[in-house]
Protein 1
Amino acid sequence: MSFDCQRCGACCCNPRENREEGFLDWVEIESDAPLLRRRQLASRLVTRGRDGRPHLRLDARQRCSALRGEVGARVHCEIYPLRPRACHKVTAGSPRCLQYREEFGIADADAR
């Protein structure tokens, strides 16, 4: 079974466990990340956490501000080639992927 990440996008949303613990800044960005050198993008997409470290900004729906489209329908990442290392950690079909899909009500039947 394969999963269409451009149809899903659930892993680009702040997970329940983070929200319950009060984490409002989510994906940490490494200090040498290429995204940080793109000033216009960074000014719109990056925020500083309580610890001063850069994180991808979340929108009002608790989605990454670089995510475009509708979760569970059709999505894409505006900064895919520049995304932080942490964004590489969730792989399609992994236990984390399945957890995020379940949280957003994206059924396994949607997998291709």
Protein 2
Amino acid sequence: MNEIVSCAVVGVTGRMGQHVCRLLSHADDFKIAGATEAPGSKHIGRSLTETIGLPGEQALIVERLEDLPESVDVIIDFTFPEVTMQTVEFACASGVRTVIGTTGFSDDQMNSIEKSSRNFACVCAPNMSMGVNTLFKLVRDVALILREGYDAEVLEIHHRHKKDAPSGTAVRIGQILADAWGRDYQRTAVFERNGIIGERTRDEIGMQSLRAGDVVGEHTVLFGGTGERLELIHRAQSRDCFAQGALQAARWLKSRPAGLYDMQDVLGLR
């Protein structure tokens, strides 16, 4: 019989928070020990059954992780950078393993997460899906082959509610391309083209973002050469692929020492 992992979910009424809770509720090796919501939320003090309709889930929603009525084995956080940094502070002080799917961190925030993770085991990834993490590996493999005479463009499409652009996944793809080609992502990424801009430079990596409707997430990586182009495409049709990855990461963390990991580590794609 599998060991039961006690889990807390940060931002439980968010899109990803609800998906994570539903999968946790149906998993035999997890239990939801509690969840958090923003200060002043009307859901504080209510159960998950009352709030998001999960049958039999009486764990309460609290304002802060410090307010959880029992200890937990792992925290899952898909929220916003400012909220997640509070989660990191708690994990650093308590040593609780943590899975972070939040995107849009600044360089300073990422440096803080890396430093803090010396005190707790943390999986932090811009995308938790197995398919996207396979895409990351494929992008690197292709870029190492198509080194000369090829241009790279990254196009991402998300729902109208997404707050950061480009997506964390697209940024990671851009960084992989830059690393494979020996370039500086911050210097070579081009985020907008408008007007008379002249010819495309050899080194630039195009990063384009679209926002429309309820698109869960779509990423296209285009390698354009003379007389041909190669496209790698990933389309997320449900947020469940991200939530499943988070549970997979939480299971994987059980036997890991303190440190910062990502989904490439979880899936053995290094």
Protein 3
Amino acid sequence: MAKTVLVKPIITEKAEGLSDSLNQYSFVVDRKANKIEIRKAVEEMYGVTVDSVNTMIMPAKTKNRTTRSGYVRGRVSSYKKAIITLTEGEEIDFFGDI
């Protein structure tokens, strides 16, 4: 059973700004994946050449929400994030032909 390295792309305003200005793309990745495995997974899945990989572990956060019955307290679990820099002239199109 092969482990899935890339979980999902991160599509936020900040991530879109990085991709527009610096040719960097953000992904949620498996906690145990290293930079070499992440590079190979992105190159294989999207057919691009990766220049560099930066990883970080985002900490868990507690969130509070107010409802009719009072406060609802919850947690957002931690995850590992990878920021991929592609070589000049390459790009990843997440949206396809929408």
Protein 4
Amino acid sequence: MSIFKNKADGTDRPEERKSPGGEAGVSIIAAGMTIVGNIESNGNVRIDGRLIGKLVCKARVTIGGKGRIEGSVDTANALIEGEVHGEIMVRELLQLQESARISGDITTVRLAVQDGAIFTGNIKMGKEAKEILARTPVPNLIPNENHKPDASQAAAVRDKVKTA
């Protein structure tokens, strides 16, 4: 055990100890892991592997230096060190570290960018972003009981994973 860990829950990062809902811990997609599909979380999420799909997080998303998302992100707060290829909606603060590589449109109320971060796309911030986000409810990804996966979409995702 590291001497810097919190005695109560063993975590190293104070911002990742508890989500707003009070649940302990962080959901992690580890390096070497690929998830194909949608993820919804009330708690914090850390991506060190690869996600192909949508990520909806009502707390904080951290994308590590080797982390990669190919799809959309909708979250309250985000810290990005890795790559995102797709739309990003951050309802509070988006932080782009110097190693961040973003390709897609961003909508956020506040943005902090370190020197070296690369962004290709359009951005909406401040008052305009607040208005857009107020009109855009946080999506619910959990399908209803009658949901049937689209076979052509599933095949396209399988092909994308095979070529990666």
